[in-house]
Write a structure and sequence with these properties.
alpha/beta; Aspartate Aminotransferase, domain 2; 2 domains; seven-stranded mixed β-sheet; four-stranded mixed β-sheet; 15 strands
C-alpha cells in the first residue's frame, strides 16, 4: 500500500486492504482474511469471482487471437452482437471499452441522427438530476451532479438537467433544439432511486410525441442486475438507444451501445470508432457471460434473491429508527439512513463484509447474482448488530 501511494494517481480513497483472490461471492486479502462481497466490483462481477466458464473462454481465446482491430471481422464479436440483439430491442451494436465510452457514443449518435436528417439545430440532451453517466468531458457534462462536474468547468454545452420522476419538468424542458432524453431506469450512483410506476411509460410517450430519442443508460442496471436481462423490460417500453458496460464481461473492460436500425444508420463508416472496442478476447468472455445469464436461470435466481434480500432489509428498517427507506429492484438495493453510511461500511469490513455507501447516507447492496440466502442472512445479522 505504501508503494501504491507513491506511484498511483490519487483519484481514489482506497480502503486499507489488498485483495489477492476471489471465488464466487468471496474475496481474500494479503493477510488471508475472507470477505463476503456485496459490491461485486461496483455491479460488475455478476457471475461472481473466477467463474470457470469465463476463465476457460479467456484461456482458450488467449491461445488463438487477442487483437486485430476493427478493420476485420472476428467470430467472438459477431457472436456477442448477435446474442445481444436477439435478446433486446436493438438491431445494431457498437463496441467500446467502458460505460463512459458507450455513453459518449450514444450522445454522438443522437446528434448525428438529427444532423443527417437536416435538423442541425437539434443537439440538446435532457438528463436527470443525481444521474451518473461517466467521467469523460461529455459524460460528466451529461451527469446531473455538481460534485462530478466541479473543477472541470466550463462543461460541454448542450445538456439540460431536470428532476428525476417529474414528467411535467420533462415536458417543459423539451424544445425545438432537443434531440434526446438520457436517463438511467434506476439511478444507481444517485442513491438507488427507482422510477414511479408509470414514469418511464410517460417518458416514452412524450419522446414519441415530440420526435425525441430515448436513451437508457443500463450500464449498472443491465445484464440481469434487476431481475430482468435489461431493466427496461420491467416497464413495458423500449428505448431507441441503450448503453451497457460493467457486468457485460464480468470484470473485463468492455462497453456497448445498442440502437434500432433507423437510428444506427447515422453511424456510417468513419463516423465513430474504437481501437480496442470488442476485441476477440474480451468478447469471447462476454459471450459466456450472456450464455450463463440466459441459459442457467441466473436472472430468475437474482429476482428471487433480490426479493428475499429486500424483505430482510425491510425487517431491519422496522427494527432500527436510523433506517429511513429500503428501495431497489433485484440485486440493486439501497438502504437510506439518518446517519453517515461510511462508518457502517467500515464496521462491516472489519467484520468481513464489503458493502458500498453512496450519496453519504445510502448503503448500496450489489452482490454477485449467484448470492444465496445464507450469505444474505449473514450480512443482515452483521448490519443488525452494527446498527444496534
Amino acid at each position: 500500500m505504501n508503494k501504491a501511494d507513491k506511484v498511483i494517481a490519487k483519484t481514489y480513497t482506497r480502503f486499507p486492504i489488498v485483495i489477492t483472490k476471489g471465488n464466487g461471492c468471496s474475496l481474500w486479502d494479503t493477510q488471508g482474511k475472507k470477505y463476503m462481497d456485496f459490491v461485486s466490483g461496483i455491479a460488475v462481477c455478476n457471475l461472481g469471482h473466477a467463474h470457470p466458464k469465463v476463465s476457460e473462454a479467456l484461456s482458450k481465446q488467449a491461445d488463438v487471437l487477442l487483437h486485430v482491430s476493427n478493420l476485420y471481422y472476428t467470430e467472438p464479436q459477431i457472436e456477442l452482437a448477435y446474442r445481444l440483439t436477439q435478446n433486446s430491442f436493438a438491431d445494431r451494436v457498437f463496441f467500446c471499452n467502458s460505460g463512459a465510452e458507450a455513453n459518449e457514443a450514444a450522445i454522438k449518435l443522437a446528434r448525428k441522427y438529427f444532423n443527417d436528417k437536416g435538423e442541425k439545430e437539434r443537439y440538446r440532451i435532457v438528463t436527470m438530476e443525481k444521474s451518473f453517466h461517466g467521467r469523460t468531458m461529455a459524460t460528466l457534462s451529461a451527469t446531473g451532479q455538481e460534485k462530478i462536474r466541479k473543477g472541470f468547468e466550463p462543461v460541454l454545452e448542450g445538456f439540460d438537467y431536470i428532476p428525476f420522476n417529474d414528467i411535467d419538468a420533462l415536458r417543459k424542458s423539451i424544445g425545438p433544439s432537443t434531440c434526446a432524453v438520457l436517463l438511467e431506469p434506476i439511478q444507481g450512483e444517485g442513491g438507488v432511486r427507482c422510477p414511479d410506476p408509470d414514469y418511464l411509460k410517460a417518458v416514452r410517450r412524450l419522446c414519441d410525441e415530440t420526435d425525441v430519442l430515448l436513451i437508457f443508460d443500463e450500464i449498472q442496471t443491465g445484464m440481469g442486475r434487476t431481475g430482468k436481462f435489461f431493466a427496461y423490460e420491467h416497464f413495458g417500453i423500449e428505448p431507441d438507444i441503450m448503453t451497457l458496460a460493467k457486468a457485460l464481461a464480468n470484470g473485463l473492460p468492455i462497453g456497448a451501445m445498442l440502437a434500432s436500425e433507423e437510428v444506427a444508420e447515422a453511424f456510417g463508416p468513419g463516423a465513430h470508432a474504437s481501437t480496442f472496442g470488442g476485441t476477440p478476447i474480451i468478447t469471447a468472455a462476454s459471450v459466456q457471460v450472456v450464455k450463463v445469464l440466459l441459459e442457467e436461470n441466473l436472472i430468475h435466481h437474482c429476482a428471487t434473491m433480490g426479493a428475499y434480500f429486500k424483505e430482510r432489509l425491510s425487517e431491519l428498517k422496522a427494527k432500527h429508527e436510523s433506517i429511513v427507506d429500503v428501495r431497489g429492484m433485484g440485486l440493486l438495493l439501497g438502504m437510506k439512513l439518518k446517519i453517515d453510511g461510511g462508518t457502517i461500511v467500515n464496521s462491516c469490513m472489519e467484520k468481513g463484509f464489503l458493502i458500498n455507501c453512496i450519496q453519504g447516507n445510502v448503503l448500496r447492496f450489489i452482490p454477485p447474482l449467484i448470492v444465496e440466502k445464507e450469505e444474505i442472512d449473514a450480512l443482515v445479522a452483521c448490519l443488525d448488530e452494527i446498527l444496534g
